[in-house]
Specification:
Chain lengths: ~325, ~270
């Protein structure tokens, strides 16, 4: 059945149609109004800002490309990018690998899967602030659980939150703990969608479990793996809260410097510090745009890598 | 042999569960003991009697329940607004061929690509001009509708709400809003539950934007208060952990209650994506 209103709308496409569909336009308008005011306008404004010198209070001063020239020579910015990539790599590889293993176990064990799923997913709904505080206390040099256990076993304590590599290791472990279960659930959804006929056919052809895994499971899961790689890339490039909370109390350094030697200074943490601690809005906007371009480029590269391998196999 | 493999599998899985849940347990252990107990060798692994003392020190140092109330107000308001605005917009997109529908929906999908940090500085400037800095408005209004929810609900409504039912309602003289309220809304409740949990958890745990815009130390959200407590009283672990425990527990309990349906819906969403 087509209502008379719709017939009318088709007859007079232009103004009458717009008028007869006013409830629909009204229904979708809140999102678009909020988007225009709080997203599109700010993003456009940040393009302008990237070419200014402004502390948010005084007059804006046009400085041309000077923010970007400074950015290219800013060793701290390059260090923050390097840290971001290293932490992303150190967290994503084990996270996705463990998630795949867990998903396969969840898929094969029949009993208690409901319980396992909840237990593995809970870390993902826990606040990053709380988790970072927890990790900070467990990896503390004095009285941290890890060092207490090490001492108990006769080993000497490790300065987890002081050394360049252990800082990254702690942050990566934290991310891995929070995201393995989430990715496992996503992979499990993919595994359950693989037709069982494929496995039966493989069995008839005499394929072992390892062969089946690499010849059927992995190729079938490829779109889902691509999805998780893209999501972890976008999330990983924006790592902020973990190092911000872990090292905000480090009095020896200035606030939000990412810990000793700035080993935990990520790109977004650097952006935050320049923009909101140093009130350098122009430079902050330039950093945000540079990070955005890096994310775009890096996501595209990862996309190509994963999907090309899909075509090859 | 087969049974043995099953036991091995469950043991491996249980090890994973222990790793997954240990931080919650250990937070509770630290929150119920004194900080000094943590220095003992071997470490104390059981709950102690100090929880009330630790909470007492927590309450003298920060306005814990005030910030929890703020977070509760923000999370509830944002969830209610998102559920309404997103589902009614999704209903329009899913079931009505209004002119420009596809273009507008395409635009909506494009907004996924804009990373939030690009907008942060100008958003803060807007809040300064609206005189909303330090107020809950700054946290609620910009979050009142979002692209993810509309996208997700549109998929859900397309499948769940039968066209015949809407046509019948139209014949009975129901306009757009009554079709939404009387036909669509009762059917899409499970979808709303998923979107509601996602939104509530996200708003409860949100940190970056509240950190920037909640500048008044006496009026914070839970996550910002917790982080500042950690910064200021870094050595009093048992007090900080008491705060962390109180901040995490309500959400963990709520999530566990709804988890079954939630995870099922999350899996469905992943397959569509």
């Amino acid at each position: 059945m087509v209502s008379t209103r719709q017939v009318g709308a088709h007859a007079r496409r232009s103004k009458g149609a717009l008028r007869s569909f006013w409830p629909q336009y009204l229904a979708i308008s809140p999102f678009f109004v909020l988007f225009l005011v709080f997203m599109l306008f700010p993003v456009l404004f940040s393009v302008v800002l990237a070419f200014q010198k402004w502390d948010g209070l005084g007059e804006m001063e046009f400085v041309g490309l000077r923010n970007f020239e400074f950015l290219l020579k800013d060793s701290l910015f390059w260090l923050s990018l390097k840290n971001t990539f290293l932490i992303w790599f150190m967290s994503t590889v084990p996270t996705l690998f463990l998630a795949l293993v867990i998903a396969n176990m969840l898929n094969s064990s029949v009993r208690f899967t409901g319980f396992y799923r909840i237990a593995y997913f809970v870390p993902n709904v826990t606040s990053v602030v709380a988790v970072a505080i927890f990790f900070g206390s467990v990896f503390a040099t004095n009285a941290g659980l890890i060092n207490v256990i090490l001492g108990w076993l006769g080993a000497s304590p490790v300065q987890w939150l002081v050394n360049e590599w252990t800082i990254k290791l702690v942050i990566a472990t934290l991310i891995c703990w929070q995201w393995t279960g989430y990715n496992a659930i996503i992979y499990l959804a993919g595994l359950q969608a693989i037709p069982t006929e494929l496995y039966e056919a493989a069995k008839i052809d005499g394929a072992g479990p390892v062969q089946t895994f690499f010849r059927i499971t992995i190729p079938q899961l490829r779109p889902i793996i691509l999805f998780t790689v893209v999501i972890s890339t976008i999330n990983g490039m924006q790592t902020f809260t973990e190092p911000q909370v872990l090292f905000s109390s480090n009095v020896a350094n200035s606030a939000n410097s990412g810990g000793p030697g700035s080993a935990g200074l990520t790109a977004i943490l650097y952006f935050y510090r320049e923009a909101f601690n140093n009130n350098d809005y122009g430079y902050g906007a330039a950093i945000a745009w540079a990070v955005f371009l890096v994310i775009l480029l890096f996501t595209a590269i990862n996309w190509r890598l994963v999907s090309r391998r899909a075509r090859a196999s | 042999m087969r049974r043995f493999a099953g036991v091995g599998l469950h043991l491996t899985m249980l090890t994973g569960v222990v790793i997954s849940l240990f931080p919650f347990y250990w937070t509770a252990v630290m929150a119920t003991n004194t900080t000094r107990d943590m220095y003992t060798v071997p470490p104390k692994l059981t709950f102690g009697p100090e929880l009330m003392n630790n909470i007492g020190r927590l309450l003298t140092n920060i306005d814990f329940f005030g910030s929890m109330l703020n977070t509760l107000i923000v999370a509830c308001s944002v969830t209610a607004l998102v559920l309404f605005f997103d589902s009614i917009a999704a209903f329009a997109f899913a079931k009505f061929a209004f002119p420009g529908r596809n273009a507008l929906f395409g635009l909506l999908l494009l907004t996924f690509m804009l990373p939030s940090q690009l907008a942060l500085i100008p958003q803060f400037v807007i809040m300064v001009n609206l005189d909303w800095v330090g107020t809950l408005n700054a946290l609620i209004v910009p979050a009142a509708a979002n692209a993810f929810g509309i996208f997700w609900m549109r998929q859900y409504i397309s499948n769940a709400v039968p066209d015949d039912l809407l046509a019948a309602a139209r014949i009975d003289g129901c306009g757009f809003f009554r079709q939404y309220a009387y036909v669509a809304l009762p059917i899409i409740r499970p979808g709303l539950a998923f979107l509601g949990i996602t939104t509530f958890v996200g708003a409860w745990n949100d940190y970056v934007w509240p950190l920037i815009v909640m500048v008044d130390p006496s009026n914070l959200t839970l996550q910002v208060a917790l982080s500042q407590l950690n910064t200021a009283h870094n050595t009093d672990y048992s007090m900080i952990m008491a705060g962390t425990l109180l901040a995490v527990l309500p959400l963990a309990v709520v999530f566990t209650l709804f988890a079954r349906g939630f995870i099922r819906d999350a899996m469905k969403g992943a397959l569509r994506g």
